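Ex. 9. Protein: Transcriptional regulator, TetR family.
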Amino acid sequence: MNHILNKKEARRIATRGKIIDAATHLFATLGFHKTTIQDIAQHIGMTTGAVFHHFGSKKDILDAVVENLDHNFEEYIEFLARDHRDRRTMITGMADIFVKRFHTDPDIIISMTSLAAEFSSIRGPVILKVQAVYDRFVDAFEAALNKFSQEKINRAIAIGFIAGLQGVAVQALLREGEMSIEELVQGFLSMNALAKPGE
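Predicted structure tokens for Transcriptional regulator, TetR family:
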């Protein structure tokens, strides 16, 4: 009997994962407000009733998507917690993770960007959750930068880094075939190497 329940629970978890993945993709491409439960269901070949069996509302799906986005920052946060030889090596390593993640799941990056843009003017619980996800990354990045030198600007550097790379991701999608994500990230890193605070 326990084996049957485990299989059933595994199917439930897998189905919830498919719904979250579909919603992440659709929120990235259409935005939250333009995505319907029917869109999500059709995207994965389910009925709307089946989606509602797993999530009570579109808002519940959004919460699950944001939670999933939060988990997707773990690799960055674990990397930042390590000891690094110097800032340049650390930042290049972060960019390498970003490029790898872009190749494996660009929807995660674009969905986070899209949700932040869509909800930023609606100061409510959703944007607070999205900002909390960003803040986990920013806090970890700022702490890592502080290991090299404690400067007030480190938080702004961390925020600018994530904002810049998300912009690079959008441009990579717009310029597919013109330039690779690797070339765009290299351009971003080179631009940042030229700019020095206060100059």
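Check your answer against this statement. The chain is about 80% helix and 0% strand.
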